[in-house]
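Hello Y.,

Per our agreement to keep a running log of every chain we model this quarter, I'm adding this entry. I've kept the format consistent with earlier entries: sequence first, then predicted structure.
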Amino acid sequence: MSRFAHGLMWVTPLLATVGCFPAKAPLKTTMHEGADDTRTLVVMLPGFGAHDTTLDKNGVIPAAREAGLEADILAADLTYGYYISETWEDRMREDVFDVYASQYDHIWVMGISMGGMGSLLTAKTFAEHVDGVVLFSPFLGRKKTLRAIQEQGLERWVAPLEDPMWDEALWTHMQQWNRRGFSQPPLFLGHGDKDLGMRNLEWMQGLLPEDRVEVTAGGHTWPVWSELMGVFVRDHLVGRWEAFGKPPTVPVVPDPVASEDTDSADSDEGASDPSTDSDAG
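Predicted structure for the entry above:
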């Protein structure tokens, strides 16, 4: 059995091993073009049972547009089969980052439920390309792993040294990310107040700065994720990050000519008039 299939909660191990979840190559993606001059790509990953087209049909992508997101959006059909076959990394590398990384200045990753897990794995594996991560009701790992981390505390928890499971390796990376305040790259979390896995979501919420978290009324549903998408785009992203319209910070370089003029003025201001000095006394 795949190490990813072990411990995932959506299907039985039997189904996971009999080819019920194909993982075709290349990875199917759907591009939703934004503004003509955009230099930002948002990669969206679906949850279990959803597909690249589902994100549009169920209102998540329209909500992003209505809230003012002008970036290109690439909906990737990274379904369950890619995780349990352990081909997700190859597909994301060859069909997403190898294709698009050179075309954009910024790449952000957003994921729903299982896609939230995929977003964290993507940020870990392709750290040189990912500039920000937004999670909606993410699956965060196996109960055994999360229970151990929560009981011991993230900083004190130590993963098994030999052959760690996928989520143990992920949370070892999350420890390092936590030490940077989940700011390099910035991490955002949104979920419903009656969502699946509330204990884990609330625990994760406690790790993040308050201004990186949004909670809305509802459960593990498309209306909740569409609402959260609008809130994050409107209140957290647009105009607040360079990738989403904030002007880049330009360092102030002193003008050497102006500096010389200022120095001259300063030196003259306190200087005495020789003729006055000679007449004094």
